[in-house]
Amino acid sequence: MDGTLIDSTQAVERAWQRWSNELGIRNPFGKQGHGRPAEDLVREVVPPERAAVAVIRLRQLEESDTNGVIALPGVQHLLRSLPAENWAIVTSCTRDLAFARLAAAGLPAPTHMITFDDVEAGKPSADPFLLGASRLGVDPARCLVVEDTVAGLISGRAAGCTTLAVTGTQPLHELRAHADHVTSSLEDLVLVGRANELEVVLGA
């Protein structure tokens, strides 16, 4: 969702920096943090006895700051073109944060949404996309995963999905190693309906 459908970069960086300042620690959210569940990152840098409180505080900061969150180019048109039963959002955000950012960006909430709250293991585990395919009622091999991070692409491939990397969040050479296809924008995608299936054409 973040980095593929919406640009939340500034809000994310503000929340993490404020959180780090409050705890008096170095901000752990670097390029390798993109795509991973925030709770996993927190537990890597905060002692176990303080982790639960630290996670709650980070969630408060993230959910209360959606200034500057916008839809990325081509996303509004793409989502309007997709039948509701044919797509899902699979995100490392919590459910509350995902809804807050979608609303801030003026995007519709999907019929199917998998969040950090729905799985035991987040990205790069295969679990999120396996659950997404299950909710859609299709074989993962027939699903296209659109991701902007290495963690997300690894997750999609582990689930057996075809992967499409969107550049911008992480270096191209890192994404390409885990992607079946690469694009710089969802504006490049064209949807073609074919006999009970939806074909995605890149660069048409």
UniProtKB/TrEMBL annotation:
**Gene3D superfamilies, per the entry:** HAD superfamily/HAD-like, Putative phosphatase, domain 2
Q: What is an example of a GO molecular function annotated in this UniProt entry?
A: sugar-phosphatase activity
What species is this protein from?
Cryobacterium glaciale
The protein's matches in Pfam families, at most eight in alphabetical order, are given as: HAD_2
> Per its record, how is this protein called by name?
HAD family hydrolase
The UniProt keyword set, sorted, is: Hydrolase
